[in-house]
Amino acid sequence: MKHWICFLIVALLMISVNVCAQDDVSEDGGVYKDGRLFNISPDRKMINVGGVNTPEGLDIYMNRWFERFEGEIKDLGRKIDDLSNEIKELKKSVEKNAESSQARTSTEGNVFKR
Hints:
Low-confidence stretches: 21-26
Order of helices and strands: HEEEEH
Strand content: 5-15%
Keywords: Signal
Strand order of the largest sheet: 1-2
Signal peptide: 1-21
Organism: Candidatus Danuiimicrobium aquiferis
Shape: flat
Largest sheet: 2 strands, antiparallel
Region (Disordered): 94-114
Helix content: 55-70%
Mean pLDDT: 80
Protein name: Secreted protein
Number of helices: 2
């Protein structure tokens, strides 16, 4: 019985070493561009500098990223403005229908009153 317990402990230790000894692999491990592996964002462009293809500078990439982000914010602002205008029109329509309904009931009188 002791042999089985020792065997089980040794086996568990061997398995735990294999599990813990694996390399950490991050999601952004690298991108293949022009046949080479770069540790960059997938949407980062390659540029030719002195005959060598390299990733664009971080300042250029971040500028392009923020311009795209600002464009998306402006689009959302336009959509919010459009929705605000639609809500205003709906409020006007509801108020107009409420006024016409009140005018109609006041002129017709209460039919159900005995």
